[in-house]
Write a structure and sequence with these properties.
The complex is a heterodimer of chains A (187) and B (252).
Chain A lengths: L1 H13 L3 H23 L2 H17 L11 H17 L32 H12 L3 H11 L5 H8 L3 H21 L5
Chain B lengths: L4 H5 L5 H12 L2 H16 L11 H13 L57 H14 L5 E7 L7 E7 L4 E7 L8 E8 L5 E7 L7 E6 L7 E8 L13 E4 L3
Antiparallel strand pairs in B: 1-2, 1-8, 2-3, 3-6, 4-5, 4-7, 7-8
Helix pairs in contact in B: 4-5
The chains are: A mainly alpha (187), B alpha+beta (252).
Chain lengths: 187, 252
């Protein structure tokens, strides 16, 4: 159902219907702003980044393929990447395609939970999953995802080998996945 | 290689490693399966952030900017324009500038006798511009042409674009990244046509994001230059007193 909704909205975006852009914003604008604010910590900059991201999506709407990933992932990835670029002083041109390959993006069988409105329960479960991680694993994930540090930078920062950082990241994501799956969050 | 998949998904690899792993994953079912599994956790991360409602104006900004440049018209490859503020008053001395008036019958030349006009800015008028621009786009017989404005010196971080709706004699000038003018100074926008002197369009101060947008009603000739200088406020200067620090030419 969500896949169909994404397909329909994606096609309307690619066709240049401004109302489709408005709907995209109404669906995911708050999540996008929340992510940008978490990364940047500044409401004004978060606004700028969200606007840039939505307009970039608007201009490249014909690249969206709902069969390979949800609109929600598309929006959040764009906002997160631009927030990190902004934070680290990188221009959009410097960023080569870093989006997670679409065929690796989450989509449950027969449904697309990422297209649904974020509920407080989902947030609570994900936070629990993060809280359950050993501090050093959580630190590695958050420094990479929300602060944009590379594994080498993190290794230097906390004085451990790069291989250790990679290992912590993998263990963290494995544990998170197991926790979320165990709580029935269909990610 | 498997050990790097998590870092890959968290965007924590450098470019070379990323490219190598990407190529490897293409042909490695084991890594693909791992990536599939771990990606579910990565996609949970944005949900963990505090849910914060964005300001209402953000939606308006996005819709207004999208209306200026429809998909596929991002000709200059820059960040899209931000429309936050626009003039809501005009004076008889500044007939080029209008906010949401009904377009007058064409053709109509630029008003070369226009004197500097103080533009007051108001977000309240933004919705009107959005409606206007959408209407323009729907009735345009040809797509708008976009020209870049580039900053130098004190405005090196500024940029802008001029979107010309040629068949309707309308242009929208959107500027971003403008530093706040010095005390008692204002920015002044000029149109300089080939072989003619600069004509003031008006004065303005950018919003707190360094953005400003104005709509110019009238035919901009090919080869015209749009330029911004910093002048004494509140009324600006009769002629530019400095070299333009943000400018662009409408090359044919």
């Amino acid at each position: 159902m969500e896949l169909e909704a994404d397909l329909e909205l994606g096609e309307a975006l690619a066709a240049g219907h401004v109302r489709a852009l408005a709907e995209l914003y109404d669906r995911y604008g708050q999540l996008a702003y929340s992510v940008a604010l978490r990364v940047l910590g500044d409401p004004g900059r978060a606004e700028d980044v969200v606007q840039d991201a939505f307009l970039k999506l608007w201009h490249s709407a014909d690249r969206f393929d709902a069969r390979r990933g949800s609109l929600r992932s598309w929006v959040v990835t764009a906002v997160r990447n631009r927030s990190i670029d902004y934070l680290r002083g990188r221009s959009a041109h410097e960023r080569r395609e870093r989006e997670i390959p679409l065929d690796a993006q989450a989509r449950g069988e027969g449904s697309d939970p990422w297209s649904e409105v974020v509920t407080a329960m989902e947030r609570q479960v994900v936070r629990e999953a993060l809280t359950c991680l050993p501090p050093e694993q959580r630190q590695a994930v958050e420094l990479a995802y929300f602060a944009g540090y590379s594994h080498r930078e993190i290794a230097e920062m906390i004085c451990v080998p790069v291989s250790t950082v990679k290992g912590r990241m993998r263990l963290a994501l494995e544990k998170m996945h197991s926790y979320l799956q165990g709580r029935g969050l269909p990610l | 290689m498997e050990e790097a998949v998590a870092a890959y998904l968290l965007d924590a690899l450098d470019e070379e490693e990323r490219a190598q792993l990407g190529a490897h994953i293409e042909g490695c079912p084991s890594c693909r399966a791992l990536m599939w599994r771990l990606s579910r956790a990565v996609h949970g991360l944005p949900i963990s952030v505090d849910d914060v409602r964005p300001p209402e104006r953000l939606r308006e900004r996005i819709m207004a900017a999208a209306a200026v440049i429809p998909p596929g018209q991002d000709a200059v490859g820059q960040a899209a324009p931000r429309i936050i503020a626009l003039p809501v008053t005009t004076t008889p001395e500044s007939p080029m500038i209008e906010t949401n008036r009904v377009r007058r019958s064409r053709p109509r030349a630029l008003a070369h006798t226009a004197a500097a006009a103080v533009l007051s800015a108001g977000i309240a008028a933004l919705a009107g511009l959005v409606v206007y621009l959408n209407n323009q786009l729907q009735h345009a017989r040809q797509p708008p042409t976009v020209y870049a404005l580039r900053g130098t010196d004190g405005m090196a971080g500024a940029s802008g674009r001029v979107t010309v709706f040629k068949d309707q004699d309308v242009a929208v000038v959107s500027m971003n990244g403008l530093p706040q003018p010095a005390s008692s100074k204002v920015y002044q926008l000029w149109v300089i046509e080939p072989n003619k002197g600069p004509v003031s369009v008006g004065v303005f101060t950018p919003d707190r994001f360094g953005s400003y947008t104005v709509k110019l009603d009238g035919a901009l000739k090919a080869g015209a230059t749009i330029a911004v200088t910093q002048e004494d406020g509140p009324g600006g200067a009769k002629r530019p007193t400095q070299q333009p620090q943000l400018s662009g030419t409408l090359t044919s």
